[in-house]
């Protein structure tokens, strides 16, 4: 189905076109480009113009460029603009303007992607739903998601992230959500902010994009809740609160039962039981917030709860697997995609609470972008209650040296400069019956630990 015609794209961007083409999608990567896509020649680590010829050879329907690249025929199907990033943003705004979809935008220090995926699963059974792929939540990810939105979309789920002050509001104004959610506020990206309250103000900026009559879904349990409350009040946004201390969507309990988390809550005055196919109270919190968003969008909450039970986490974000070794089965908790103090604490709590008779072992990698407090925040993990229920914590990275030094000797595993150094010792550290967590910032490559454990046996993903 046609997403953009040459005439529509030119009108949206103010650019000029070559040829009377039409495209069915957008791509920024020739490795994943599909025939019929418009290739967007963004400048990142490499200049996308260097790959336009390759994209056209692979079947791209057109390319969005600021110049005709070398090796590309003069009559190639192109949309030529002054600036490719600005052109992509213009396509995103035009797509949003022509859409009748009900839009929800999600931000937060932790849980954005899993909450986005929960919402997409909840809404997809009630209407044609479009959502960001992976963690496409930055200055190019948000407009790309919007520009990819099919005309017939009924629900859209947009993820919005940030690294520095001033990033969220412009993205929220592009998305123009009817509902905006803040999952939580935590000590993340502290090197770019003075304190956590500054992070809360930046997260609250998502409400600046709300459509008239829009609803803000906010976490009542965080210390910075008043910052969110004040922002909602200043912007005239209706607020719905979720959490253990919330009056609107109240979480009463969350417990691990077998391979799922079961939460009991009150949602809009109704008792509900949420079944989540991932382990941890933090997933229960985000699921409750997602339910509040779905209801605010006009979705049937009972059907949303049923759909939630069919959701499962994406790779590296809490996926649970069984690895079969000669000595027995190992339970692997793959949470290797990212880490900060809040999500690390939650993951360690999940490890400690996971049922099983074997040992509980963690491979913990550096948590990045924490600023001057980084050593203190790493060492502070040793004081978590969950550590009592963990047998051994292996530490990976220069920053995790602080945790290694702070751990009780009996719980202190190895310290490794990198994940690569830790992999050869996995077979000697892990045996049948163990429950193993791998978690760290993406740049620490904890996925190598996960892959190393998988290679020890035959994996059966759950």
Walk me through the structure:
The strands form four sheets. This protein has a nine-stranded mixed sheet with strand order 9-10-8-11-12-13-14-15-16, sandwiched between helices. A seven-stranded mixed sheet has the order 21-20-19-22-18-17-23, with helices on both faces. Strands 2-7-6-5-4 form a five-stranded mixed sheet. Strand 11, helix 7 and strand 12 form a beta-alpha-beta unit. Helix content is 31%, strand content 25%. With 462 residues, it is α/β, with parallel strands linked by helices. The protein has three domains: 4-83, Udp-n-acetylmuramoylalanyl-d-glutamate--2,6- Diaminopimelate Ligase, Chain: A, domain 1 (3-Layer(aba) Sandwich); 99-308, 3-Layer(aba) Sandwich (UDP-N-acetylmuramoyl-L-alanine:D-glutamate ligase); 319-461, Alpha-Beta Complex (Protein-Tyrosine Phosphatase, Chain A), CATH 3.90.190.20. It has 16 helices and 23 strands. Helix 4 crosses helix 10 (301-308). It has helices at 6-13, 52-57, 84-98, 112-124, 141-147, 168-175, 196-204, 225-235, 281-296, 301-308, 341-353, 374-379, 401-406, 419-422, 426-429, 447-454; strands spanning 4-5, 16-18, 22-23, 25-27, 37-40, 62-65, 78-80, 102-107, 129-131, 155-159, 179-182, 215-219, 238-243, 249-257, 260-267, 270-276, 319-325, 328-335, 360-365, 392-396, 412-416, 435-439, 458-461.
At the third CATH level, what is the topology name of the largest domain?
UDP-N-acetylmuramoyl-L-alanine:D-glutamate ligase
CATH homologous superfamily placement of the largest domain: Mur-like, catalytic domain
Largest sheet: 9 strands, mixed
Uncertain regions spanning at least 5 consecutive residues: none
The residue fraction in helices comes out at: 25-40%
Instruction: Going across the biggest sheet, name each strand in turn.
Output: 9-10-8-11-12-13-14-15-16
Compute the average pLDDT.
92
Return the domain count: 3
Per CATH, the class of the largest domain reads: Alpha Beta
- Gap from first CA to last CA: 35 Å
